[in-house]
Amino acid sequence: MDNTTLPTSTNKTSSIISHTLNDSNNKVNPTSDNSPVTTGNIVKKRSLEQEQSPGEENDESKDNKNKRTRTPREGVPKKPRLPKRKVAVMLGYCGAGYHGMQYNPPSKTIESELFNAFVKSGAISEDNSTDLKKNAFQRAARTDKGVHAGGNVISLKMIIEDPDIKTKINDFLPSGIRIWGIQRVNNGFDSRKACSSRWYEYLLPTYSLLGPKPDSPLYNDLHKITGFVDGESDEFWNKLDEDLKKTFTPEQLDAIENYTFDYKNNGNDKTDEKIKGTEIAQSPEPAELDTNVNEKVYLLYKKHKEITNTHRREYRLSNERLEHFREVMKRYLGAHNFHNFTVGKDFKDPSAIRYMKDIRVSDPFVIENTEWVSIKIHGQSFMLHQIRKMISMATLAVRCQCASNLVDIAFGQDKMNIPKAPALGLLLEHPVYDGYNPRLEKIGYETITFDKWAGEMHDFKMKHIYDKIYAEESEENTFYAFFGYIDSFNKLLEGRQQQNDKTTNFEYLVDGERRFDELKQRKEEQETKQGAEEEGTSENNEALVPAEPSNV
């Protein structure tokens, strides 16, 4: 946070004048007769200049007349400079289709859209449009690819003489990006450094909390090693299995099971193409299947997918499972070492310590027949991918019926591979400026809050963010594909060396409780050893203290 104070212009000017006059006694005026420069001489010189006739020119004025006026380009007059003011700009945006917030040409980003609109509306000169430093530009939060924001703040110098400048900027922006307000701030304001904390929201379909699919590698490991029992998930999968057996023959189910599925392509199967006339889906092994068989398997697979999707969207989360999820999420509260929840951070790196102030998990709600929960996280600051990994870890703990202390293991020194939950459900709610707002009020500026635009922001989020999240999940099955990849991870790595690498697979989901017990035992042993050492040191110190003199 910027703690500089703003000096008054009167004191600063008087100080400069006083300093100049005091130092002038030791200088000479190069245009005079080498007499000392005093206030009297200055007045005398000005009066002599004023007595010159309009037609006369002294040597200095002739030299200035002969100087060439410089322009940026030969023959092109320089545009008049308009005053720029330091402002805070409140905005919201839908991140779908953008490579994140940060300006990064030639990639399409939120900031590239903003600067294009700033230039066209006259808020920024074209000369300064390609250099963010010239505009003292800064952002409160740098969102990743595909991440949305109901509210974000940028600070920069803009030309705001036009009272309709906000409307003009919005006219040049796509409908998925909106400017809520533009407010004057002091020159030392930095939207990132002045930000006290940030609220994020993550929307999660509740079926994501179902246990692993039966016969998947993760499911088999859980049953084999831990005796995994999950009545709620087993009931769901059994009902689905019964419905599928009523619809397909065993031979058809076997053909569907062997159908190639591309997990790397966000869950979209390789052969998910429209069948038009003679155009058919491509078989993963075209030499073994003729055209008719290939098309039939494709259609069977599509029917199987529809039934599975219907069951998944009809799932409703139990109170017990919801409370389990809330309990796990609460483990993030407070200051912890989140080195496992980002990339490129070591356990000993002080910057990996982050403080979570509040976490709220809503009651389930249904949108277009799919049940969702909203998770809101209020943190002092966040690292790259941190929230997506926090959501993923908590969700996996519930899916695998792990104790909430699994999160505590992730805070430890051991390196763990925590996958990133889909970016689809993440949005920046808004930054908070509680620490800086009193300073803005003190110097006569408005505080930075989003309260006055709450209605507009809600309507925007419903239309451009929430509806887009719901529609994309319904069409792409993003979360189902993500967790399907996790469940089948070991199978995908068959024959590779990484399969036995604990940092690559998700073994902690299977032996998490055992590892926690080991960690707890190790900590107790260290504390016992440390206590013994301290006791021994104390005894040694007592032996070194001279005895009090005897009265004998």
From TrEMBL:
- State if tRNA processing is listed as a keyword: yes
Q: Which CDD domains does the record associate with it? A: PseudoU_synth_PUS1_PUS2 (cd02568)
Spell out the subcellular localization from the entry: Nucleus
Q: Which residues bind substrate?
A: Y200
Q: Catalytic site residues?
A: D144
Q: Which reaction does it catalyse?
A: uridine in snRNA = pseudouridine in snRNA; a uridine in tRNA = a pseudouridine in tRNA; a uridine in mRNA = a pseudouridine in mRNA
- Cofactor annotation: Zn(2+)
- Compositionally biased, Polar residues: which spans? 1-41
Kindly give the InterPro entries that the UniProt entry links to this protein: PsdUridine_synth_cat_dom_sf, PsdUridine_synth_TruA, PsdUridine_synth_TruA_a/b_dom, PsdUridine_synth_TruA_C, PUS1/PUS2-like, TruA/RsuA/RluB/E/F_N
Q: Which GO terms describe its biological process?
A: mRNA processing; mRNA pseudouridine synthesis; snRNA pseudouridine synthesis; tRNA pseudouridine synthesis
Alphabetic keyword roster: Isomerase, mRNA processing, Nucleus, tRNA processing
Stretches the record annotates as Disordered: 1-84, 517-552
- Supply one GO molecular-function term: pseudouridine synthase activity
User: What's the short name of a Pfam family annotated to this entry?
Assistant: PseudoU_synth_1
- What cellular-component terms does GO give this entry? nucleus
Spell out the Basic and acidic residues composition-biased ranges. Answer: 61-77, 517-532
**Domain Pseudouridine synthase I TruA alpha/beta: where?**
329-434
Q: Does the keyword Isomerase apply?
A: yes
- Domain of life assignment: Eukaryota
The record's listing under NCBIfam families reads: hisT_truA
Q: Which family does it belong to?
A: Belongs to the tRNA pseudouridine synthase TruA family.
What does this protein's UniProt record list under function? Formation of pseudouridine at positions 27 and 28 in the anticodon stem and loop of transfer RNAs; at positions 34 and 36 of intron-containing precursor tRNA(Ile) and at position 35 in the intron-containing tRNA(Tyr). Catalyzes pseudouridylation at position 44 in U2 snRNA. Also catalyzes pseudouridylation of mRNAs.
Entry protein name: tRNA pseudouridine synthase 1
Q: Which organism is it from?
A: Saccharomycodes ludwigii
Its ancestry begins with: Eukaryota, Fungi, Dikarya, Ascomycota, Saccharomycotina
